[in-house]
Amino acid sequence: MKISIIGFGNMGQTYANSFLNSGFVQADSVFVLNKTEVEKKKVFGIPKENYFIVPNATFFESDIIIIAVKPQDFFELAETIQPFLSSEHIVLSVMAGISIATIEEQLSITKIVRSMPNIPTQIGEGMTVFCASQAVDRKELFIVQNLINTTGKSIYVEKETMLNAATAISGSGPAYVFYFMQAMIESAIQLGFSPSEAEFLVNQTFAGSVQLQKRSKIGNEEWIEKVASKGGTTEAALEVFSNWNMKSIIDTALKAANERAIALGGK
C-alpha cells in the first residue's frame, strides 16, 4: 500500500510518524506534497525523492491520498491536484468545515472519508470521528480506520452532521481539559504550592483519574460518590459547582461550540 500526504504541518507529520512507527506502511511507501521544502529533521526516514513541492503523476500513484492542508487553502489546491486524481483514489480529509460534497465537487472523485481528529493524535492517544461517502466500500473503510487508529482511537458515524458535534466534544475537548487544569494549578499556587508542585499535582491527578476510570466498570457518578464523603472537603467543592450550575455552563459551552462548527461548515 502507498500513502500520499498533502500538507506537512502538524497533522501531516503526525500521520506520517504514526503510520511508520506502527509499521502500517514502510517509509518508501509514503509520499509527501508540501508547498515548501520540509526540514531534514522532520523527514521520518521517508526517502528524499518521495517529497514533492509541485504535484506530479508519481505522487498520485498511491492508494490513499490524505489532505491535511488548512481549509482556506483547499480550493486553490483542488485546482492543481484534480487532474491527477482517478475514481480509484481514496481521499482522507482532515480539513475542518469542508464537506464531503464540496470535496467531491472540487476533486471530481467519489471515494471520500472525512475525519475530525484531535491534538492528542500527536502522541498516539488521539480521538478521531470519521464518516465516508457511499462510494467507499466496507473493505476500504476498514483499511482507512486501521490507518486512523495508528494515531489513537476512532468512531465511525454514518451522518456527516455528527462531525460538528465531534468537533465540539473531542476536537475542542483537549482545550477544555487544559482550561480546567490551569484553573486548578492557579488555585493550588494560591493555596501555597510552588508553580512546579502545583503543575505536577494537577497533572498527575488528571492522569491517574482518567486511567482509573478507563480500567474500571463503574461510571463517573459512582466514582464521585467514592471520593466525596458526607460533609467532607470534596462535597464542599462539589456544592459550589452545583450552586453555580457547572453542568449547565458546560452544556451551554459545548452547544456554542457545536453551533460554531455548523456555521463554519456552512461558509
From TrEMBL:
Reactions this protein catalyses:
L-proline + NAD(+) = (S)-1-pyrroline-5-carboxylate + NADH + 2 H(+); L-proline + NADP(+) = (S)-1-pyrroline-5-carboxylate + NADPH + 2 H(+)
Q: Which UniProt keywords apply?
A: Amino-acid biosynthesis, Cytoplasm, NADP, Oxidoreductase, Proline biosynthesis
Q: What is its EC number?
A: 1.5.1.2
Q: Name one Pfam family in it.
A: P5CR_dimer
Give all residue intervals belonging to the Pyrroline-5-carboxylate reductase dimerisation domain: 160-262
- Give the GO terms filed under biological process for this record: L-proline biosynthetic process
Pathway in which the depicted protein is active: Amino-acid biosynthesis; L-proline biosynthesis; L-proline from L-glutamate 5-semialdehyde: step 1/1
Q: Which residues bind NADP(+)?
A: I6, G7, F8, G9, N10, M11, A68, V69, K70, P71
**Per its UniProt entry, what is the enzyme's top EC class, as one word?**
oxidoreductase
Reported function: Catalyzes the reduction of 1-pyrroline-5-carboxylate (PCA) to L-proline.
Belongs to which family? Belongs to the pyrroline-5-carboxylate reductase family.
Q: Per its record, how is this protein called by name?
A: Pyrroline-5-carboxylate reductase
What organism does the record attribute this protein to? Flavobacterium tibetense
Q: What is the lineage of its organism?
A: Bacteria, Pseudomonadati, Bacteroidota, Flavobacteriia, Flavobacteriales
